[in-house]
């Protein structure tokens, strides 16, 4: 009886360890995916900041030219 009970507990522990290993693997894959997604978003953000800065520079240059044209008239 006692041996059977211990054997049952060992079997339950094996099942729990297997479940933990599967969950660990799933979380590892999910974590990797999230890191890749985060890196992509960081790159995209940097590109958008650069585009925004370029647009601002162009608009400021246009404003300066318009003011110069206005002053010359």
Structural features, described:
This protein is mostly helical and 73 residues long. The chain has 1 helix and no strands. The longest helix is centred in the middle third of the chain and has 71 residues, at 2-72.
How are the SSEs placed, and which strands pair?
Blueprint: H1 2-72
From the alpha-carbon coordinates, what is the Rg to the nearest angstrom? 31 Å
Stretches where pLDDT is under 50 for at least 5 consecutive residues are: none
N/C terminus separation: 106 Å
Largest sheet: none
| Backbone shape | rod-shaped
- Beta-strand portion reads under 5%
Give the tally of β-strands.
Answer: 0
Provide the residue-averaged pLDDT.
96
* Strand and helix order: H
Helix content: over 70%
Number of helices: 1
The helix/strand class is mainly alpha
List keywords for this structure.
single chain, 73 residues, mainly alpha, 1 helix, 97% helix
Summarize the structure in short.
The chain is mainly α.
């Amino acid at each position: 009886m006692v041996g059977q009970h211990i054997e049952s507990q060992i079997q339950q522990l094996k099942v729990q360890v297997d479940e933990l290993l599967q969950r660990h693997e799933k979380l590892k894959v999910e974590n990797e995916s999230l890191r890749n997604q985060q890196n992509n978003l960081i790159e995209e953000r940097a590109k958008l900041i650069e585009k925004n800065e370029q647009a601002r520079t162009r608009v400021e240059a246009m404003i300066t030219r318009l003011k110069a044209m206005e002053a010359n008239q």
